[in-house]
Design goal:
alpha+beta, 7 strands, elongated, two-stranded antiparallel ribbon, single chain, 11 helices
């Protein structure tokens, strides 16, 4: 810290102090106070002011010189507030408190980024393992010269779903920059997703009921189709061996539109139902016959909440699973 810079910063204060000293000097002069006393008054107050100024400068210089000396020795300079820097005034104490809060916030942000990257790395490792399975099946069928179109399409469809899932996982971190809200017909959206999965319906002998899908909702069509595809894909994956069906319908109630997807598949254990939307949770079904990354319903929940909707799930083991997406009748999106 340089004296000249400190002087420039406090010039107005020094000028004001000197002005008031001279004002009092002039006031006493008009009262015909003895000249010797006047000059003694002027000398004492000027000396007091300048001594106080240099003492204030010395205290600040002492703190900042010590602060920068420690800072220059540190490789990780953000740790400076944890070093032996002793505040010697109210101002420097507040400065150290600010540095502590800034450093704490930075660490929390870094931890958040680190955790996000670690989660993504864990997911990618799992995703690579999962996508290698249909790829290996296709290679094996090629070597065996199998021409079963049903089996080939099934493996290709699995690969397509995995690729789409990882793409939406990446996009889900910045969904606010990638969605467009407008009015969509639920029947058209559902029909599009069903058409995409038609081969799985046919080859799995799964009957479909969607006679009561009506109404329009404010949403992002691209994101909602991905969500519906994940839900239907789960129903197809965990279907029962005979007499499998999926029912899709809508229901109007209390200023809300409910889109309901119900199947008569193997269901979910009651002890696991509360965790199905957790990241990487596969449950006993996912660890059994059907492989699973445990990310489908997690992404559904994450995207649904960011779009301003709600999602619930009910199930009974070996009987049914019912997923409900709730759209509110609100002018929220129109206002935005």
């Amino acid at each position: 810290m340089k004296l000249f810079d400190f002087f420039k910063e406090h010039f107005f204060f020094l000028f004001s102090y000197l002005f008031f000293v001279l004002l009092f000097f002039h006031f006493f002069w008009l009262l015909h106070v003895e000249t010797a006393f006047l000059f003694l008054f002027l000398l004492v107050f000027c000396l007091f002011g300048f001594c106080w100024f240099f003492y204030y400068f010395w205290k600040k210089k002492q703190f900042y010189d010590s602060f920068f000396e420690i800072l220059n020795k540190l490789d990780q300079k953000y740790l400076v507030h944890e070093m032996d820097v002793v505040p010697n005034s109210f101002e420097t104490k507040k400065l150290m408190e600010i540095l502590y809060q800034v450093d704490k916030s930075m660490k929390e942000q870094i931890q958040k980024i680190y955790q996000t990257n670690q989660d993504f790395r864990d997911y990618i490792e799992l995703w690579i393992h999962e996508i290698k399975i249909p790829l290996a099946n296709l290679v094996l069928m090629t070597h065996n010269k199998e021409n079963d179109e049903r089996k080939i399409l099934k493996q290709l469809h699995r690969m397509e779903d995995y690729i789409e899932q990882v793409l939406y996982y990446v996009r889900s971190e910045m969904v606010e920059k990638d969605y467009f809200i407008q009015s969509y017909s639920l029947k058209k959206l559902v029909s599009s997703v069903v058409k995409k999965n038609k081969d799985a319906f046919i080859y799995g002998s799964v009957s479909l009921q969607m006679n009561e899908v009506t109404g329009e909702v404010l949403t992002d069509g691209k994101w909602l189709k991905f969500i519906l595809n994940q839900i239907i894909a789960n129903s197809l994956k965990y279907q029962r061996e005979k007499g499998a069906f999926i029912e899709i319908r809508t229901k109007q109630m209390n200023q809300q539109t409910l889109l309901i997807v119900r199947d008569n598949g193997i269901g979910i254990k009651s002890s696991e139902l509360a965790r199905v939307f957790d990241k990487s949770f596969t449950g006993s079904n996912g660890r059994g016959g059907a492989s699973s990354t445990g990310m489908g319903l997690y992404l559904c929940k994450k995207l649904i909440l960011k779009l301003g909707h709600e999602i619930t799930i009910t199930s009974k083991e070996n009987e049914f699973t019912e997923v409900t997406i709730i759209f509110s009748h609100s002018d929220f999106y129109q206002v935005l």
